[in-house]
Amino acid sequence: MVLGRLPVRRVLIKGPSMSPTLQHGDVVVVVGKRPKPGDVVLVTWDERPGQVSVKRAKEPSGHGWHVEGDNTFASTDSRTLGPARVHAVVMFRLWPRPGRL
């Protein structure tokens, strides 16, 4: 699991795929818990070992979740890569505009 043994982690957002919800350089807090549709989640894909992404959970799909970036023009997500493994849910942004998502 991406989170290791700690149930809460800070994650730095890189890239524009979650704009306008999250911007490149934002720092968020993720918690290892079950997602629900609409949650912003931390995911991996078997096709991209070592890559961790933040996307929006749409619906359970097979052995994973169908996830999509909020910025459809700048996101590689389940529309291309298929179901993702969800490892954690983004709870809130720490920086630069603290607040719950």
pLDDT < 50 stretches: none
C-alpha Rg (nearest Å): 12 Å
CATH class: Mainly Beta
Number of strands: 7
Count the domains. 1
Query: What oligomeric state is this?
Result: single chain
Q: Into which percentage range does the β-strand content fall?
A: 35-45%
- CATH fold assignment: Umud Fragment, subunit A
Estimated structural class: mainly beta
- The tally of helices reads 1
Range of helix content:
under 10%
What is the CATH homologous superfamily assignment? Umud Fragment, subunit A
What is the H/E order? EEEEEHEE
Overall average pLDDT: 92
Shape: globular
Q: Note the gap between the termini.
A: 23 Å
Largest sheet: 7 strands, antiparallel
CATH architectural arrangement = Ribbon
Please write out the topology.
Blueprint: E1 8-12, E2 27-31, E3 40-44, E4 53-61, E5 64-68, H1 78-81, E6 85-95, E7 99-100
Antiparallel strand pairs: 1-2, 2-6, 3-4, 3-6, 4-5, 6-7
Key structural traits:
single chain; 101 residues; mainly beta; Umud Fragment, subunit A; seven-stranded antiparallel sheet; 1 helix; Peptidase_S26; LexA/Signal_pep-like_sf
